[in-house]
Design brief:
Order of helices and strands: HHHHH
Low-confidence stretches: none
Strand content: under 5%
Helix content: over 70%
Number of helices: 5
Oligomer: single chain
Radius of gyration: 36 Å
Structural class: mainly alpha
Shape: rod-shaped
Distance between the termini: 124 Å
Length: about 140
């Protein structure tokens, strides 16, 4: 029978960290990325990884929790910026800028159209008056 390979101690530790934060609603992927920042989930053993895990476990994962909060805040800020940019794009599409050449031309065209409607209406009224005068 082939000798069994021992799982690295870091595997058990990362699972403990994931379990700790899963109870708080954090996904495993996010916990892994937060732990990686401190060198705890680098996949290798050695003194550096052992020291990182010691730091994380001694503080009851406080530094990881802080990192998770930081990641959430960054995500919220990005989302807010994205929403603001979308709102600005919608405003630009809906409300053309005043004073632009296009708006000035549009304003003149609307004014001319109103003048023409008034003139047409006046002409119709004059024609009606003339016709009514001819009947009597």
């Amino acid at each position: 029978m082939a000798p069994r390979r021992k799982r690295a101690r870091t595997d058990h530790r990362i699972y403990a960290a994931i379990d700790h934060f899963a109870a708080m609603g954090y996904p495993a992927r996010r916990v892994r990325s937060a732990v990686q920042v401190y060198g705890g989930a680098d996949g290798g053993g050695g003194e550096a990884a052992a020291a990182a895990w010691h730091l994380l476990e001694e503080s009851s994962y406080y530094v990881v929790h802080e990192k998770l909060f930081e990641m959430e805040n960054e995500e919220k800020q990005l989302l807010e910026r994205h929403q603001e940019q979308q709102q600005q794009q919608v405003k630009v599409k809906e409300e053309p800028l005043e004073g632009t050449r296009c708006n000035l031309l549009l304003g003149y065209a609307q004014t001319d159209a109103k003048k023409k409607k008034r003139k047409d209406k006046e002409e119709e009224e004059e024609e009606e008056e003339e016709m009514s005068c001819h009947h009597y």
